[in-house]
Amino acid sequence: MASSALNVLSGIAAAAAGFHGEKVSSGGAIPGLDLAKLLPAMLGSKAGGASGLLGSIASVAAGSGLLGGGGSKLGDLAGLAGSLLSTGSGGAVSKASGGVEGLASAILGNSGSASSLGSIAGLATKLGKTATSKNDLLGMASSLGKCLGGAGGVSINGGSAAVKAVDSVMGNDAKGVILKSILNGIIK
């Protein structure tokens, strides 16, 4: 389950990068969206800030290098993702429907591999190019979140507090704003 949560979270990050028009590298890195930095911030807010139990666990994990090392601790990162993101057995999203639903299906079914994340970013880029304004793009991102939260059964433990923590790491970065729109769509 934890690995599945990390795959979904990575897929959401890849979609945010794709909506911004960026590609996932051949090594699987998502430009400007480092989950190893975002997860501890999101987990800390979940349990009442840095002083909360989960915040302490995340702080110790970050301080111990658990989240560093260029992917050598992927299982530990997956465990942290699993405590943040839950994936239920909601109804399947049809790939054939294309658009936001097709993108949601790709995120839910992705393996976490570089090629899978690259495909998600590519789909998001194509979809994002159909938006006529920034507000349209953010609405599309929010719709993706609603699709993931409804049909896919994805939920964020900590809700809006976890999403607000993205601000502490990313500020007003364009990809961060898109990522927050997707995550807010999931929790509403």
List the helices and strands and how they pair.
Layout: H1 2-19, H2 35-46, H3 53-63, H4 74-84, E1 85-87, H5 99-108, H6 114-128, H7 134-150, E2 154-156, H8 159-170, H9 174-187
Antiparallel strand pairs: 1-2
Summarize the model shown:
With 188 residues, the protein is mainly alpha-helical. It is 64% helix and 3% strand. The chain contains nine helices and two strands.
Give a written overview of the molecule.
By secondary structure, the chain is mostly helical. It has one domain. It contains nine helices and two strands, in the order H-H-H-H-E-H-H-H-E-H-H. Strands 1-2 form a two-stranded antiparallel sheet. Helix 1 runs parallel beside helix 6, helix 2 (35-46) runs parallel beside helix 4 (74-84) and helix 8 packs antiparallel against helix 9 (174-187). 44% of the residues are buried. Residues 45-61 and 63-72 have low confidence and may be disordered.
Attribute tags:
188 residues; two-stranded antiparallel ribbon; 9 helices; mainly alpha; globular
Task: Provide the domain count.
Answer: 1
Biggest sheet: strands side by side, in what order? 1-2
Instruction: Detail the poorly predicted runs.
Output: 45-61, 63-72
Q: What is the average per-residue confidence, as pLDDT, rounded to a whole number?
A: 79
In N-to-C order, the SSE pattern is HHHHEHHHEHH
How many beta-strand segments? 2
- Estimated radius of gyration: 15 Å
Q: What distance lies between the first and last C-alpha atoms, to the nearest angstrom?
A: 23 Å
Which sheet architecture does the biggest sheet show? 2 strands, antiparallel
Q: Approximately how much beta-strand content do the residues carry?
A: under 5%
Total number of helical segments?
9
**Shape label:** globular
Fraction of residues in helix: 55-70%
Q: Which class do the helix and strand fractions yield?
A: mainly alpha
